[in-house]
Structures are given as C-alpha cells and as structure tokens.
Amino acid sequence: MKVRLLAVGRDRSGLYAPAVEEYVSRLVRILKFELVELPEAKKQAGTPQARDEEAATILARIEPRERVVALDERGEEPTSLELARRVERWMTRGQDVALVIGGSDGLAPAVLERAQERLALSRMTLAHRLARLMLVEQLYRAMTILRGEPYHK
C-alpha cells in the first residue's frame, strides 16, 4: 500500500513546513508515503474558477486505482483510533490511497465526486496548511497505534 497526500499550496510562512517535514520523515520510515504539493490557482484566487483549476490539477495527479479520500469539513470526523482502523483496512486490502487537501478555496465538486471517502479533521474550518500538519501527524499516530508503539497514550 502506498499513501500519497496531494495538497494544494506551500507554506510560505515557515510556521508549518518544519513540523510537516518532521512527520513526513517519520512516515516514510514505516510506510510508503509521499507528499505532493500542487500549485495554487493564484490568478483567480477566491473564485469558482480557482477551485476548478486546482481540481483539474488534483484530478490529473490521481492514479486510476487509488482510493481517494477528500479532506472536507463536512466529512466523517474519526477519532485517532478509528483512523488507525481505517488505515489498517486500506493496508489489508493493499489499496493505494490519495488523501486530498484543497487550497484556501476548498475542493471543487469534481474532486469531492471522485472521492470514495470524506474525512474531517475538525468541524471548524482550518487553514489548509494547518490541516496538512494535522493530517500527517494523525497518520503517524495511526501507524504507531497499529505498530503498538507508545506515541499514542
């Protein structure tokens, strides 16, 4: 099983990138994991066209056989243990997974329609760069739960 995180935008603030890199470095030691940063649609930011442009980029990067999991505030909000069980199911099936985080304008309907699952990290709206950090930390936590490691107390 391979897990890819397709995320729109980069952290230019420097606040989140170091922590994301730390968790990605931990994940790649125990899981086939890849973080794919996709460009934001800057010229049309804040418009439906921006989401559509980003959607085209996202959909072009999704492999045909990947299970797509969209991060969406209206999605299912699992606990850390429930996420670990979900990851375990993906592993048991040998299923490659693409986790998708949209840009500041969210995900276009075309991406949500392609997704087999929708997950929420919180009912609150999160900055997409903060969501990226939270997701990689929760994936790492899920893997330590599955491996019986003491990270999750």
Protein model, in words:
The longest helix is centred in the C-terminal third of the chain and has 19 residues, at 128-146. This protein is α/β, with parallel strands linked by helices and 153 residues long. It has five helices and five strands. It has a five-stranded parallel sheet.
Structure summary:
The chain has 153 residues and is an alpha/beta fold.
Low-confidence stretches: none
Strand order of the largest sheet: 2-1-4-3-5
This entry's quaternary arrangement is: single chain
The percentage helix is 40-55%
Mean pLDDT: 94
Per CATH, the class reads Alpha Beta
Q: Globular, elongated, flat, extended or rod-shaped: what is the shape?
A: globular
What is the overall number of helices? 5
What's the SSE blueprint?
Layout: E1 2-8, H1 17-27, E2 32-38, H2 48-61, E3 67-76, H3 80-93, E4 97-101, H4 109-114, E5 117-119, H5 128-146
Parallel strand pairs: 1-2, 1-4, 3-4, 3-5
Keyword list:
single chain, 153 residues, alpha/beta, Alpha/beta knot, 5 helices, 42% helix
